[in-house]
Amino acid sequence: MTTIELQPIHDEPALLCKEKLLLIIADLHIGIETELQQNGLQVPSQTGLMQERVIALIETYEITDLVILGDVKHNIPTASTQERSDVRRFLDALHDRVALHIIPGNHDGNLGRLLSPDITLYSSDGAVLDGIGLVHGHRWPSEEVMRCDQVAVAHTHPTIMLTDRLGYRTFEPCWLRASCDQKKLQEKYPAARDPIVFVLPAFNPLCGGIAVNTDPMLGPFHTLLDIPNALVYLLDGSALGKVRDIK
Q1: DSSP E strand boundaries for the chain
Q2: Is residue 152 a contact partner of residue 134, using CB atoms and an 8 Å limit?
Q3: Taking the mean position of all CA atoms in its chain, how far away is CA 213?
Q4: pLDDT attached to residue 1
Q5: Which whole-number Å values give the CA distances from 190 to 32, 136, 137, in the listed order?
Q6: Three-state secondary-structure class, residue 97
Q7: Among 37, 26, 12, 41, which residue's Cα sits nearest to residue 106?
Q8: Spatial separation of the C-alpha atoms in residues 129 and 122, rounded to whole Å
Q9: Which of 153, 177, 198, 226 could, after both became Cys, cross-link 137 (CB 3.0–4.6 A)?
Q10: CA 145 to CA 134: how far, in whole Å?
C-alpha cells in the first residue's frame, strides 16, 4: 500500500496531504492575548490574522478537510465571553469552506459547547483520518493511532535554540520529524508499527514554545520518541540536522 505523503508548507506551521486535500494545524490558543495583557503585555488579537492565513491556505491548496490538533482556545477551565465569540466566529468561517475535524487538547475543556453540530469533535486520545494518526499529545494516544505509518502530534510548540558567536540566543519555531524509541514503543503498544511522527509548531505566533535541543518535550511523546535523532526543520524549510547535533 502506498503511504500518503505529508508535507510541511513553506513558511507556515501547517501540514499538507495533497492526495487527500487535507490540511493539519495545531495550537491556535484563541484568547491567549487576555493572559498576556494581564501580565502587562499589550498585544493585538491574532484571531483575525490566523483566520486569514488558514483561509488563504485552503484556497491555495483547494483543501476539502481541515484538522485542528487541539488547543483551539486558550483559557482554562473557563473562557471569557470574547474568547467564546472569537472561537465560534473563527470555526464557523472555516467550516463554511471545508469539513472541520478537531482533536481536543488540554486547553479545550467544554469546547463542544462552542461547535456547530456538523463539526466533528474526536476523543482526546486521537483519531485516524485517511490512514493518518492524529493526536494533540497531552495524553497517551490510542492503539489505533499508533498503528498508523504516520502520526501528527502537537502540544509542545517545538522551537530550536540557536546561539551566535557572541552568545546571543534566538528561538525559532521548528518541525520535528521523528521515529519512536523501539523498546519503549513495543512496551506500550505491542501492535504498533514504526510510525514517522511529525511534531507541529504552534499556529499562533504568540504561544512561545519548548526549545527541543535544551528541554524535554511535553507529554508522553517525550517518552515514546527518539528525540536526539529527530530531524529539525525551520518553517522556511531549512534542514538543521538532528536534535543532538544542534548546540
Answers
A1: 7-8, 15-17, 22-25, 65-68, 99-102, 120-121, 127-129, 132-135, 150-153, 158-163, 169-178, 196-199, 210-211, 231-234, 239-242
A2: yes
A3: 18
A4: 44
A5: 39, 21, 19
A6: coil
A7: 26
A8: 11
A9: 153
A10: 7
Q: Which residues pair with 67 in a beta bridge?
A: 24, 101
**Cα–Cα distance between 149 and 192 in angstroms, integer?**
9
In this structure, the dihedral spanned by the alpha carbons of residues 24, 25, 27 and 32, taken in order and rounded to 10 degrees, is -150
Task: Please give the single-letter amino acid code of residue 104.
Answer: P
Q: Residues 47-103: pLDDT tens digits?
A: 999 999 999 999 999 999 999 999 999 988 777 788 899 999 999 999 999 999 999
What is the spatial distance between Cα 222 and Cα 229, in angstroms, rounded to a whole number? 13
- 8-245 is classed in which CATH architecture? 4-Layer Sandwich (3.60)
Long-range (24+ apart) CB contacts under 8 A made by 90-94 are 90/28, 90/30, 90/47, 90/50, 90/51, 91/115, 91/116, 91/119, 92/116, 93/51, 93/55, 94/51, 94/54, 94/55, 94/58, 94/66
Please tell me whether residue 65 adopts helix, strand or coil conformation: strand
Average predicted confidence (pLDDT) for the chain: 93
